[in-house]
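Record 1 of the preview.
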Amino acid sequence: MSTGSTSTWPGMRFSAGITPDTTPDGLAAMQREWDARIGEPWPLPGYGIGGSGDFRVRLRAVKAHDVVIVDIRNYGGSFAAATTGVRDAGDRVLVNLMQRGAYHFARLDGRGEAVTSPAGSFFAHNNGPPWSVEVDPGAATKILILPALALGRLMGGRQIVGSAPSPEVRLLMAHAITVGENAPGLTPVGARGARDALLELVRGAIRREFDDTEPGLTQALARAAMDIADARLADPDLSPSSLARDLNVSLRTLHRAFSAAGESVTAYVRRARLERARLDLASPSGRPSVSEIAARWQFADQSHFSRAFRKQYGETPSQFARLSATGS
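->
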């Protein structure tokens, strides 16, 4: 069991690990660390863990205002967990944003259907009833612990699974990542703004729609669009219009989000493609030709690619490749 933390308010955070060798002592130590670093009114649900194989669980928690974002990664074999329900008052909503692998949920009281939450999806439920969870090898999830009152009557005691490719889930995931990365450095006002945007996106994911005119969501929208663009940089059909369709927003809304981030959609895509091309040029072996790299990353021709590369990096692709080959 290992832990670490920072004392910056309001983004208090800590990390902890559990292995077969540390259970149940590791659970108790993690519980104590959580209480000390995160504390009330955000108690960690009581857990019992049993595993098969060499599971290695790593937890990182960040608190921003009255929400907690928890990253849990399993670095080994599958394991099973169960909430005891003892510490739960039923006044919070837990939202699992699956990043890799899958979690399999079932209520221990026999009510409700068993749920499998695969990578890219989300699963929301109230924290009161005890649950069993089976975790796939190598699974990773981000859990949002949210005040139930802030979500009003949207939950209604339901368990809700969100569609993996939905724009709402993409935006929610992007914003949760941003808040988790930046919460420790936020001012109280900034933490409250990040929290409000997070709750609005959770509402949108539950309702399967979101208010794309809400100013607080522009950062999440820009990040989600960047994530999609990064995965499609070699796609000749990548464009601002296609990104807007993927996120179910108007082109004007997308441009407004990028403008707030300080860079146009087109400029971001060009810069990202140039960086991928630069990595190809620096490859020590099996490097494609300059013309092949230009075509791979959707530049009109070698001349266009060379001009854009030189403007970005101060040298031509050929010059950069030669210097990389000589180690200069």
